Amino acid sequence: MLHHRLLPLLLLLLAPAALAQTPRADLLIRNGRVYDGAGGPAVLADVAVRQGRIVAVGTLPADYPADTVLDARGLAVAPGFIDVHTHIEDDEVRQPTADNFLLDGVTTVVTGNCGSSRPSLRRYFRTLDSLHLSVNVASLIGHGDVREAVLGQARRAPTEAELTQMEALVDSAMRAGAVGLSSGLIYVPGTYARTPELVRLARVVARHRGLYATHMRSEGDSITWAIAEALQVGREAKLPVQISHLKLSGPPNWGRTTEILGQIEAARAAGQAVTIDQYPYTASSTSLSTLLPDEVQADGRDSLRARLARPAVRREVVAGLLRRLRRRGLRHFSYAVVASFPPDTSLQGLSIEQINRRRGRPHHARHEAATILDLVARYNAGMVFHGMSETDVQAIMRYPHNMVASDASIRVWRQGVPHPRGYGSNARVLGRYVREQQVLPLEEALRRMTSLPAATFGFQDRGLLRPGFAADIVVFDPATVQDRSTFEQPHQYSVGMRYVLVNGRLTVSEGRHTGARSGQVLRKF
User: Fold this and answer.
1) Which of 113, 214, 454, 499 has its CA 20 to 30 A from that of 402?
2) What SS3 string covers 304-373?
3) Could you give the residue range(s) of every CATH 3.20.20.140 domain in the chain?
4) Residue 122: count of CB within 10 angstroms of its CB
5) Which CATH class is domain 80-282+387-463?
6) How many CA atoms does the CB half-sphere of 83 hold within 13 Å?
7) What is the pLDDT of residues 423-477, one digit of tens each?
8) Is the predicted pLDDT of residue 108 greater than 60, yes or no?
9) What DSSP assignment string belongs to 157-211?
């Protein structure tokens, strides 16, 4: 009888306890238009976060327990953006908060692109672990660095013994957690590699279920041949291919998007896994030395200077630069603008044409070509090259297997005159190409920034707003999100990113970086 008398009291005591069994959220996002990243339309929902993970998505009770509540009424809630093509090496120590990425909605970056990475990713990942960046970082192993570690900058094929050494370095990087192999086939020493070398190294990557990401040999006149080589590496090594920053450079190549996208789509139809990425601008950015022939750059900078000091070599290189200019249908090197030149920062933001005139030389392309050689001999300047068509940019953007990428470093505030893509690539897509020009629907643009890159690079618990997934989340205003960075004034952060969470920590609040540094190294095993 005593047991039955106590039962009502016991139930009364248990009722609050049952409510208390709902795990208390560290953070609760209320009333947002939730885009889960899979490409579907938004739903009005709440998102609860606990211990760095999403624990609930849906219409949650009014008394759902939470330490912090964010009101997302009228705002979009999406997975944190994944930038698959970055170059953060060297800047992560100076700027570990990575403000330019976070304020553009990016919570994860993939570095080690274009054949350039840290040679020892195991050591690099330990360094990142100790730095505690504000963004998550994954890395490719760079073919160029692997080749240089074994062959230096020699312009020749590796011996079998050397190739075996290179394979061992790639295998070590993959065991350390690299997501794949990258190549930069317009850069020394990557440009000296032939296709069989790339296939051998890619086969090592395939054993670890990684991918091959390539800055191809050509993005202009020979682009179809370059795409064919990239596809060949993927076919023969049996691994996915990621074509970096697809574009058509130079007016003679404008309008070839149907041709190159058809080539990629044909490979996909034949069963190949092929994806691309793109930054949403009509200018590229890379080093000035890419304008010079490969053979002139072999064996290091001292050899480069020695060759350029020879009158016959100098005349030949100048003639090649002039031929390049004529193919573009231009009279001057106005399309090439200095982004970074530490020996003389007054040149930053000026075109080669402007620098030549400033030096009092005749206003002629031949003298501008000589100016290029003078600059390269002194320092390999970072450049912005204006040479793409807006029509092509939009046509490539519409391709469904295309991801948004910045091809940028962690920007150090007010340093140089860099390409604006480092500050505003995602916001530019959302503001200019989604809201203003309607090139893409919002839900599709978000898929390109979230679940597509996560699936491509193997981030199994990111890229979607689902219970159990890492709480990388961006809350933004679709009506106001916009890039502000320009070619003339690049050091300007994007606007409209209201809140950004990285592994559950509030890293951007009301559009300002909180100083939180909860990023993780994303190793692939």
Assistant:
1) 499
2) HHHHHCCHHHHHHHHHHHHHHHHHCCCCCCCCEEEEECHHHHHHCCCEHHHHHHHCCCCCCHHHHHHHHH
3) 80-282+387-463
4) 14
5) alpha beta
6) 36
7) 999 999 999 999 999 999 999 999 999 999 999 999 999 999 999 999 999 999 9
8) yes
9) PPPHHHHHHHHHHHHHHHHHT--EEEEETTSTTGGG--HHHHHHHHHHHHHTT-E
- Count of C-beta atoms within a 10 Å radius of residue 106: 29
Q: How far apart are CA 129 and CA 336, in angstroms?
A: 38
Residue that the structure tokens 């001057």 belong to: 332
**What's the mean pLDDT when you consider all of the chain?**
95
* Cα–Cα distance measured from residue 469 to residue 466, given in angstroms and rounded to the nearest whole number: 6
Q: Give me the residues paired with residue 29 across strands.
A: 47, 70
CB 277: neighbour CB atoms within 10 A?
27
> Helix H segments across 208-310?
223-237, 257-269, 294-297, 301-308
CA dist list (Å): 483 to 360, 390, 397: 37, 17, 17
Exposed/middle/buried for residue 447 (C-beta within 10 Å: 0-12, 13-18, 19+):
buried
Rounded distance, CA 383 to CA 204, Å?
34
pLDDT value of residue 4: 39
- Name the token pair of 304: 């480069």
479-508 residues labelled b (16+ CB within 10 A) or e (exposed): eebbbbbebeebbebbbbbbbbbbbbbbbb
| Prior bond of 158 cis (ω within 30°) | no
Number of H helices, E strands in the chain: 17, 21
Dump pLDDT digits (tens) for 4-48. 343 333 333 333 444 457 889 999 999 999 999 999 999 999 999
d(CA 322, CA 515): 49
The answer to whether the peptide bond before residue 453 is cis (omega within 30 degrees of 0) is no
Three-state DSSP class for residue 451: helix
The values of phi and psi at residue 403, to 5°, are -110, 150
300, burial (CB in 10 Å: exposed 0-12, middle 13-18, buried 19+): middle
What is the rounded CA–CA span in Å between residue 479 and residue 358?
44
Q: What is the CA radius of gyration of the chain?
A: 25
Sign of CA dihedral 410, 411, 415, 418: positive
pLDDT band at 231 (very low <50, low <70, confident <90, very high): very high
pLDDT tens-digit map of 126-161: 999 999 999 999 999 999 999 999 999 999 999 999
For tokens 């990388």, the residue is 472
Specify whether the CB–CB gap between 29 and 60 falls below 8 A: no
Q: Residue 364, by phi and psi: left (phi above 0), alpha (psi -120 to 50) or beta?
A: beta
Residue found under tokens 């679940």: 451
Tokens of 155: 């312009």
The encoded tokens of residue 240 equal: 């996915």
Find the farthest-apart pair of alpha carbons in the chain and give their distance in angstroms, rounded. Answer: 111
pTM above 0.90, yes or no: yes
What's the first-to-final CA gap in the chain, in angstroms? 61
Task: At 315, list the tokens.
Answer: 């005349």
Nearest to 445 by CA among 280, 283, 285, 281: 280
Q: What is the pLDDT of residue 20?
A: 55
